[in-house]
Amino acid sequence: MSGAPPRAPETRLPQGDDKQRAVEAMFDRIAPRYDRLNRIISLGQDRRWRRHTVAALRLAPGGTVLDLGCGTGDLCNVVAAAGYSAIGVDFSAGMLAAAHTRAPLARADALALPVPDASADGVVSGFALRNFVDLDRFLRECARVLRPGGRFAALETGEPASPLLRAGHDLWFRRVVPLVGSTLADDAEAYQYLPRSTAYLPSPAELLALVDAAGFGAVERRTFTAGAVQLITGTRR
User: Fold this and answer.
1) Distance, CA of 96 to CA of 73 (rounded, Å)
2) What is the pLDDT along the chain (237 residues), one digit of tens a residue?
3) CA dist., res. 159 & res. 59, Å (int)
4) CB-based contact 232:219 (threshold 8 Å)
5) Contact 198, 157 (CB under 8 A)
6) pTM
7) Which helix (H) or strand (E) holds 64?
8) Which listed CATH number (3.40.50.150, 3.30.565.10, 3.30.420.10, 3.40.50.2000) goes with 16-236?
9) What is the residue extent of each domain of the chain?
10) CA torsion sign, 211 to 75 to 107 to 123?
């Protein structure tokens, strides 16, 4: 399960508090057009990826599922449609203001959730791992709020293993996506940052090890769309 070869160094990405401020401001700006751009950028596949994420929970109907980094609530809606009780959490006020879900929403930091220990049956996250300031702390916070046996499922970007497919993916994600974002969202900076932010992600093997060390067993990784997207799952020990 080896990762793709390292990329050439790019302009330095923000870290720590600078990253948190930059990410929050960016999502506040792009919130009104976020869903439309997601459909275009993913070629309409994002709905299918979210369904796979929720299906991977395999919980009893009625279970409480936290969607961390919920954005405008797309994943919350899939959670609710599957028969679970969804609660969305995000630190972007702009995203929450643009939400289109009936699920209760809370503005909070996913690294310090206002949630009691062992109170949730599931945790999901859609394309948010690379935006957290401290990924290890985020995973441990997920483990804290999950009951033993609770399920974790995180959807994220990936990279195809095939050199040919990876070249096509890079052309789309790193060249076309910023152009689309600049044209349709009038925010070239944000849609240049989003592809670059994948550099925050550890390799697949390192990511699985982090999830395991945070308190999860049965940790697995699946990929979709030729490896362009990955789904990480685990069960709270």
Assistant:
1) 8
2) 444 434 444 568 999 999 999 999 999 999 999 999 999 999 999 999 999 999 999 999 999 999 999 999 999 999 999 999 999 999 999 999 999 999 999 999 999 999 999 999 999 999 999 999 999 999 999 999 999 999 999 999 999 999 999 999 999 999 999 999 888 888 889 999 988 999 999 999 999 999 999 999 999 999 999 999 999 999 999
3) 29
4) yes
5) yes
6) 0.92
7) strand 64-68
8) 3.40.50.150
9) 16-236
10) negative
Tokens of 130: 């690379």
Tokens standing for 218? 């049965």
What 3-state class would DSSP assign to 162? coil
Tokens linked to 4? 């793709």
Q: Which residues contact 95 (CB under 8 A, 6 or more apart)?
A: 27, 28, 31, 34, 70, 71, 72
Burial of 16 (0-12, 13-18, 19+ CB in 10 A): exposed
How far is residue 59's CA from residue 143's CA, in Å, rounded to a whole number? 16
Cα 188 from Cα 182, distance rounded (Å): 4
